[in-house]
Amino acid sequence: MTNDIDTREILHQTALNAPNSSGVYLWRNQDSTVIYVGKAKNLKNRLSSYFSGRKDIKTQMLIAHAVSIEYITTTNEYEAFLLENNLIKKYSPRYNINLKDGKSYPSLKITKEDFPKIVKTRRVIKDGSLYFGPFPDAAALDIFIKTLFKLYPIRRCKTMRKGVACMYYHIGQCKAPCCSKIDKKSYNQFIEEIRKLLENKGEQTQKKIEREMKEAAKNLDFEKAARLRDGLKALMVMQNQNIVETFSADDRDYCAFEREGEMVSFSILSVRLGKLTEHELFRTKSLSDDENLMGEFLCAYYDKREKIPPAVFLPKMALADENGSDTDSSIEHVRHWFAEQFGFSPEIQTIDITSADDDGAKPYLRRTNAALTLERHRATLRMAQQNAREDIIRRARKKSDTPAMQELQRVLRLPNLPRRIEGFDIAHIGGKFPVASLISFFDGNPDKKNYREFRLKTTDGIIDDFASMKEATARRYTRLLNDGKELPDLLLIDGGIGQVNAVDAVISSLGLSIPIAGLAKRDEEIWRPHTSTPICLPKHSDALRLLQRVRDETHRFATSRNQELRTKENTVSPFESLPHVGKQRARLLRKAFTTLEDLAAAQEAQIAQAIHVRASDASEILLAAKKLAEKQRRSKKRISASLTQSGTTAEKAAEAARAQNLALLAAEDEADYS
What we know:
- This protein is of the alpha+beta class.
- The chain has 22 helices and 18 strands.
- The protein starts with a helix and ends in a 5-residue tail after the last helix.
């Protein structure tokens, strides 16, 4: 019974840690057999739903027999549809039996004839025809084909009977090529336009449909307008490229990796007969440079001749030198190894997955005449890399980062293992809305319930990172000191020696001995207080990786909070708290005076002229503005005085009073985030 509870808890935790992206998930039993395949628009939400509320018998049995959940992220829900269909056919999962009918998703076919026709089909054969799809939404495909027939006078008959015109000719919906009413060149202009439309090149055709729709609505023909509107919606579905299934019946692999320190995850997406049918993840630890990792992996992964596909696609950076350019010798080395081991070398193509075009894969595309576009190769590689990244995240969550903490303790000569690390960063826009973020890591992983934020008061409207960092750390550690709470093992500052020394002055004035380090972004140098040279660690150092994670998280948290405040400021102006002022007048006041201080220094006549009010109302507005501005100045002055005194050697009584004052200020706007 205990084991069942533990397994369910592991499954539930896997669901909670899943990404908020579309994809396909697989449930496996204790024999590693796939017992269910499902798709989701949001993997985390869908998987979590299995563990909430009352479930039917089938779902209860599924959870009872499962021991693990795997998932493959996709670019969109459309790809998840197709991938789920392929995996169900491959594994025939026990709990999917009632859901699958053995059919393939329908495709659109343009026949290879002198006068081609357009049909929906579930069979793809090598007959020279053009195929587009497959499309999971069969109803949308039907609407789209009907829309094409309304817009283009092309034939619908299965076979052309010479000299016999059908009904569609007489109602103006077919040019009757069977009766030589249209020549081959003119007819195929319609087909070419439709082909471009399906290949995302039909902007003119889309505009044509939109014009027809507007014209129908103008003529009160709402039925036709609705039909064309549905056709446009269907067109959006038709144009949504998928990367998990194509009509090029070739085999190829897509390989990508992600790393964090010495931890590396490789992701392989295998396409066989034009369908994505396999996803594999491989985990390892390596100190090799990124440019060597992929070559080492390929030589280890392809250990059998039958396992090697005709083509292997890699991100361009996977086999790159230190300058980021392709290293021909590295690629040639791998090709030579294939030829030497198996007497055969696949096409190894590198693609820049960050750009919109790349000539590297075009020779392969021309030789195979594949229907896949370069962008589809790029999208598939991105999908492989995203799955590798998700695996790295899962691995990091499952382990405490003890090696990194041990290295950090040794390098920085810390008295204790830095299990609790607190990081600070400042975010502002030209000195406006200054925010300090405090994030906490425990055992090498984010501890979000101990995140804090500080709306800075002494530097509002002033660009002074040193003063901002002083205020934030003084308020934080004064409060911890007064409350007798546990202090961190290491304090990390996002910045260089200047910020580190500023914070050290605050910590020392409080009588604390918290180790402090700063991480400068430019060269990833580590600074300790009052030192003349930084500590430089190797780029794959576990200790450096941990500090980078803390620094990046503080930056993300500070920036997101600053953006929230800007949004709030744009929706709720301090001017709106003044008498006789609403949103419209607040906007006019902000345009005329910019800040509350400028408004308080203005004349009654200026205010009356700016928002067109009577002199008596302007007098009330000015008086209220002066009171509010004075209140803000007193608040800033009070905090500034407290911070200035914290750097002196004042008497203990003054220190205690100052600490109490800072703690009260900290309590005003310190917020918990979990």
